[in-house]
Design brief:
The complex is a heterodimer of chains A (394) and B (338). With 394 residues, chain A is mainly alpha-helical. Chain A is 79% helix and 0% strand. The longest helix of chain A is centred in the middle third of the chain and has 34 residues. In chain B, helix 2 packs parallel to helix 10 and helix 5 packs parallel to helix 6. The chains are: A mainly alpha (394), B alpha/beta (338).
Chain lengths: 394, 338
């Protein structure tokens, strides 16, 4: 987002449309993806996702020639749409690839690559993109022709990784398309009337508020990570070359904290730990808002520790005791990703109208909602009372 | 067997494909064979973050351009001997070009002329030499434009606040061109002449924070109603703000403007609004353009010549109507001495 802001000289709000396009596509394509998978099977779903994502990557080529921001948003939307279908299809695909006994193991193994991929992506950005961008200071004395050249040069830096991603996706597409993969038959459960499920879920406050909490959790996570680099640059004055390392640090903190949280979840009740970490996250946001220096930046990085347990914990708490309804209920929790599409725009607007640091009021409020959900769960008994609440690994 | 080969073959084929993608991605990282270039950079001192930023950017650009950079610095803004010695040492080292911010406009000229006589290109950065023809080129801030920007801002802001301007001018010192040009620009931007009655006081501060504070205290004692303060640089502005606060003046009713764009002032005074606006200059551009100009010349490009404006932007957290400015976040991203 920061890269596009610099290249196109936009406001924070305009550049936040990057996240809107990305998470919006994820949200919009979740149900069509489920339809494709159920109608045509997992393999078609995976291939559709891979293919669409590859097309999105290739669309960056004409977008960089046209030098139109909207074109980049379209490319990004297409890429994310593909990834949404891919993720929706791939998880049950992985489960169906072998026996039910080892399904969780396979899924955990597959999911373990997510944070690794995120770290590698940010690392590549910090090494290959950010240091090579034209500095804003040098743009102040450029002629219109020179500015155009610098835009093209900067966009080519952004373009190369996306082309690389498209190429890798095409290779994986070919690998899957031309291999016969044995899929175990799906166990058929008793059909549950959808209308009844929806009504039951709606009347379950732990679930209903859980979806709301998940919406705000994803929003807080997206806001925090989207604006870390901008906070480093705009508030603390860290150079473009070095600012990427703070996002890298956030992801590493997130990764380490997740393992620590898994251990702590064995000691504390999940919602108690959720409450503590959400309050910690709110405190970090307040520090980020009012300590306009390296301490504020460290607080921004520390928010990731608070975020690390939230998605799987809310997921587990909200679905606890739902029985067969959990399958349908999980879709609502996944669609809460919409928070990641909408709230970063609010964060950016606060930055534009107020100040870059003030923007962290948005993830702060989001985390306060998560804390409120944890408190609600702690103070409200369920009927029937769940024997134990389990957290799942995202 | 055939089936096994195909199963083994697919991942290998994928690996080859991935390797090709990665190799294509990194192909641009291989440096070209370029003519070797050695450049010397001489700054005034290392205590001022302005010069440290200039050196650091020159080092970064030299690295990316494949240039060998030699650096030297004086001990103060008046240390001529160190600079002259540095020029001579660099000539002995066989540099292709020298970038110099002279501590004395005339004192460094003989050494520069000797270097140019040996075919070395010399670019004055930030500070001009006298005569200017003693160097091949001069890369610096347009100080008059910088003053003009803050003058226009101060006039528009005073009008917006409904103030009857009572202007205090905290200047540099007589005979220093950068200070004189900034003052000239401020007056033009504000739309007044040197003898306009709205100027209630004008004092030299040598660009020093403490002297700026003392000067402001004295001017306030003479005219307590001062509501527009022009300062030649940010240390002086910080001193003036301190004096205004000590005197219990409501800064909301006083327009304070300055020139520089250093990180300390932007973060601690422009961001909270104590300094209303500052004209940010870019030593980064002086270093960047200087290194690339000499490298280009050695590698077959044109010889650097004439004056290059290295840019100036008005930074404020409280824009004035009709005056183009950049926000504080821009100022922080591009400030020097962070």
């Amino acid at each position: 987002m920061g890269v596009f802001r610099g290249i196109f000289d936009m406001t924070n709000f305009q550049s936040s449309l990057v996240q809107f396009a990305y998470y919006g596509a994820y949200f919009l394509l979740a149900l069509p993806a489920a339809f494709i998978t159920s109608r045509y099977g997992y393999k078609v779903g995976v291939l559709t996702g891979l293919g669409l994502a590859a097309v999105g990557g290739v669309l960056f080529v004409p977008a960089s020639k046209a030098l139109v921001y909207g074109f980049f948003l379209l490319a990004l939307f297409t890429l994310a749409a593909g990834l949404s279908i891919l993720e929706t299809s791939a998880n049950p695909f992985v489960i169906a690839l072998g026996s039910e006994e080892t399904a969780t193991q396979r899924l955990n193994l597959a999911q373990a690559f997510n944070p690794v991929g995120a770290n590698v992506g940010v690392l590549m950005g910090a090494i290959l993109i950010l240091p090579g961008l034209t500095s804003e200071a040098s743009k102040t004395i450029m002629s219109p022709d020179e500015l155009l050249q610098s835009q093209e040069a900067d966009l080519s830096l952004v373009l190369n990784p996306y082309l690389g991603i498209a190429a890798v996706l095409v290779i994986i597409w070919l690998l899957i398309a031309f291999r016969k993969i044995p899929i175990l038959e799906q166990p058929k459960g008793d059909a549950v009337p959808v209308g009844n499920v929806a009504t039951r879920l709606w009347h379950n406050r732990h679930y209903r508020y859980g979806v709301v909490a998940q919406f705000f959790n994803v929003a807080a996570q997206t806001c925090t990570w989207t604006f870390t680099i901008l906070y480093a640059q705009d508030v603390v004055g860290i150079s473009e070359k070095n600012s990427g390392w703070f996002l890298q640090a956030s992801l590493i903190v997130f990764l380490i904290a997740r393992f620590v949280m898994v251990w702590l979840l064995g000691i504390f009740r999940p919602t108690k730990l959720l409450l503590i970490m959400a309050v910690f996250g709110v405190a970090c946001c307040l520090i980020a808002m009012f300590s306009l220096n390296i301490v504020g930046l460290i607080a921004v990085v520390a928010i990731s520790a608070a975020l690390s347990l939230m998605f799987p914990t809310i997921y587990g708490v909200a679905l606890s005791g739902l029985g067969e309804d959990a399958k349908f209920g999980a879709a609502g929790l996944v669609m809460a990703i919409l928070g990641g599409a909408l709230l970063p725009m609010v964060h950016a607007l606060v930055m534009d109208v107020g100040s870059p640091a003030l923007g962290y009021v948005v993830p702060g409020v989001c985390l306060a909602f998560v804390a409120a959900y944890a408190l609600f769960d702690l103070r409200t008994s369920r009927d029937p009372k769940p024997s134990a609440t389990s957290a799942v690994v995202q | 067997m055939r089936g096994n080969f195909r199963r083994m073959g697919a991942p290998k084929w994928a690996l080859v494909g991935l390797s090709m993608v990665l190799m294509a991605g990194f192909a641009g990282c291989t440096p070209d064979d370029q003519e070797p270039v050695t450049i010397g950079l001489i700054t005034k001192q290392e205590n001022n973050p302005y010069w440290v930023t200039m050196r650091r950017v020159a080092e970064d650009v030299a690295k990316s351009e494949g240039v060998t950079l030699l650096t030297a610095t004086g001990t103060s803004d008046t240390d001529i001997d160190s600079e002259v010695n540095a020029i001579e040492a660099m000539v002995d080292e066989g540099v292709d070009g020298i970038l110099i911010a002279g501590t004395d406009s005339k004192g460094v000229v003989p050494a520069i002329e000797a270097a140019r006589a040996k075919g070395i290109t010399v670019i004055a950065v930030d500070t001009p030499v006298d005569p200017l023809s003693a160097v091949d080129a001069f890369y610096a801030t347009d100080n008059k434009r910088a003053g003009e920007m803050v003058g226009q801002y101060a006039a528009a802001k005073a009008k917006e606040l409904g103030l009857e301007p009572q202007v205090a001018i905290l200047d540099l010192a007589p005979g220093i061109s950068s200070g004189e040009l900034r003052r000239e620009g401020f007056l033009a931007g504000f739309g007044i002449a040197d003898d306009d009655p709205v100027i209630v006081g004008s004092t030299d501060t040598s660009g020093d924070r403490e002297l700026g504070k003392v000067a402001m205290v004295q001017l306030l004692a003479q005219t307590p109603g001062i509501n527009v303060v022009y300062t030649v640089n940010e240390p002086v502005a910080l001193g003036a703000v301190e004096a205004l606060k000590d005197a219990g003046v409501d800064l909301g009713g006083v327009v304070v403007v300055s020139v520089d764009g250093g990180c300390e002032a932007i973060k601690t005074a422009v961001r909270p609004g104590d300094i209303d606006a500052t004209a940010q200059q870019y030593p980064q551009n002086m270093a960047r353009k200087g290194v690339t100009a000499i490298a280009d010349e050695v590698r077959g490009g044109e010889k650097p010549s004439g004056y290059l404006d290295t840019g100036v932007e008005l930074i404020t957290g409280d824009p004035a109507p009709g005056v183009t400015s950049r926000d504080v976040a821009f100022g922080i991203r591009n400030c020097w001495g962070g």
